[in-house]
Amino acid sequence: MPADSSDKRFANTLARGLTILRAFRPTDDGLGNLEISERTGIPRPTVSRLTFTLCALGYLTHGRRHDKYRLGPAALALGNIAAASFAFVEIASPVMQRLADATGTLTAISIKDDRRMLLTRAWRPVNSSSIWLDVGYRMPLHTSSSGKAYLGALSDEEFARFLESRGDEPEDLLAEFAAIRTAAHGEILAEGYTQVRGEDRFSETINAAAVPYRPSDLGEPVAFLASSTSQQLSDQRISEEVGPALAEAVAEVRRMTGQQSALVVKG
Questions:
Q1: Which residues face 4 on adjacent strands?
Q2: Burial class (CB in 10 A: 0-12, 13-18, 19+), 45
Q3: Domain segments of the chain as ranges
Q4: How far apart are the C-alpha atoms of 71 and 76, rounded to whole Å?
Q5: pLDDT of 267
Q6: Residue 34 Cα to chain centre, angstroms
């Protein structure tokens, strides 16, 4: 639970309802109340009341009495409105598609969503018959290249708020976040991109490079990434081709949108 959940203004019922909506993944063929309870940690009787309410409001839907819940039209409409409000995404689209085609990688944008990085837009290479990541996929912050790029771009003040929001986690993990942030900042300054290498990656089958970007209409950085299977995208290929190409693509997006570097230079 976020650190500010103890504030009297914090609406716990609303927070739990939004937590339920976040529980759904693109690969799900619906979720029952028990599955939602297991994923969110919210007691099943409370889940039952909240899913009933979310269905009544159109954020969830289910066809029959015992059918599983799926995201409803109100959730879809809200997502589309949110996506349309960020102009940089459409500006970046042709740049990221060219990069995907040139490198044979899946290029994408990820944002921090609660305690993970959420894939919100992706561009597949032309004629690609396979997909290794998709919109809605959530990645761990500390073991994904996207999370590393996000952490590396945080200012001291932003990082302090980040640590406060995760104050319920072990001290060694918080120390790990600090070390990752420092390493990522240095890599981005030196190379233009960052990545998680080898056994530290959250997935052995996926490799990626990431570059932070700070949109003017968001309060924190996002991450552009280029990814593929580990067989197709080695660390050497990232360092020699894909990483520098991604850094240049994001620099082009910055020029087109008039944004400065996402990094706050440390004194």
A1: none
A2: exposed
A3: 3-78, 86-257
A4: 7
A5: 43
A6: 26
* CB burial of residue 123 (10 Å; 0-12, 13-18, 19+): buried
- Would you call 194 exposed, middle or buried from its count of C-beta atoms within 10 A (0-12, 13-18, 19+)? buried
Query: Per residue in 139-197, pLDDT tens?
Result: 999 999 999 999 999 999 999 999 988 878 889 999 999 999 999 999 999 999 999 99
Give the C-alpha distances (Å, rounded to integers) separating 130 from 124, 150, 227, 228: 9, 27, 13, 10
Distant-in-sequence, close-in-space partners of 129: CB < 8 Å, separation ≥ 6: none
pTM: 0.78
Compute the distance between CA of residue 235 and CA of residue 91 in angstroms, rounded to an integer: 29
The tokens for 133 are: 């990541």
Instruction: From the options 3.40.50.300, 3.30.450.40, 3.30.750.24, 3.40.50.2300, give the CATH code of 86-257.
Output: 3.30.450.40
The residues, any chain, with a CB within 8 Å of residue 18's CB and separated by 6 or more, are: none
Query: What DSSP letter does each residue of 91-154 carry, written as one string?
Result: HHHHHHHHHHHHHT-EEEEEEEETTEEEEEEEEPPTT----S--TT-EEESTTSHHHHHHHHH-
CATH code at 3-78: 1.10.10.10
Alpha-carbon distance of 197 to 194, in angstroms, equals: 10
User: d(Cα 36, Cα 231) in Å, to the nearest integer?
Assistant: 35
Tell me the C-alpha to C-alpha distance, in Å, between residue 32 and each of 13, 25, 69, 135.
19, 13, 6, 22
